[in-house]
Amino acid sequence: MRISELKQKEVINAEDCKRLGFVGDVDFDMCDGRLKALIVPGPGSFCGFLGREKEYVIPYCDICQVGDDIILVSVKKKEVEAPVR
């Protein structure tokens, strides 16, 4: 499979069934030529003026299945705690 084919696939989190977006880039290990992670740009911020908030870096071990149109991943949502005042 080519990188251009991966970029046409939508990434969906199997944990909460949410769309994460389309593959924007991939991370390869140059020594052995293996895929290390998929990089998916995060949602845009305020009307797209301020760029993107973050990006999702999904390790290879979290990829469940690659289909014709989508890529299923299993990413646990990290809980963010509010600071204690």
Provide a descriptive summary of the structure in words.
This protein has one domain: PRC-barrel domain (SH3 type barrels, Roll), CATH 2.30.30. The protein is built from one helix and seven strands, in the order αβββββββ. The chain has one helix at residues 3-6; strands at residues 10-13, 18-22, 25-29, 34-41, 55-59, 63-66, 70-73.
The gist of it:
By secondary structure, the chain is mainly beta. It has one helix at residues 3-6, and strands at 10-13, 18-22, 25-29, 34-41, 55-59, 63-66, 70-73. The protein has one domain: SH3 type barrels (Roll).
Topology:
Blueprint: H1 3-6, E1 10-13, E2 18-22, E3 25-29, E4 34-41, E5 55-59, E6 63-66, E7 70-73
Parallel strand pairs: 1-7
Antiparallel strand pairs: 1-2, 3-4, 4-5, 6-7
CATH architecture: Roll
Rg of Cα set: 15 Å
Instruction: Report the order of strands and helices.
Output: HEEEEEEE
Considering DSSP H and I runs of 4 or more, what fraction of the residues is helical? under 10%
CATH topology: SH3 type barrels
From the N-terminal CA to the C-terminal CA, the straight-line distance is 51 Å
Strand order of the largest sheet: 2-1-7-6
Number of helices: 1
Largest sheet: 4 strands, mixed
CATH homologous superfamily annotation: PRC-barrel domain
> What are the segments in which pLDDT stays under 50 over at least 5 consecutive residues?
79-85
**Total beta strand runs:** 7
Oligomeric composition of the shown chains: single chain
- CATH C-level label: Mainly Beta
Give the total of domains: 1
* Percent of residues in β-strands: 35-45%
Task: Give the overall shape.
Answer: globular
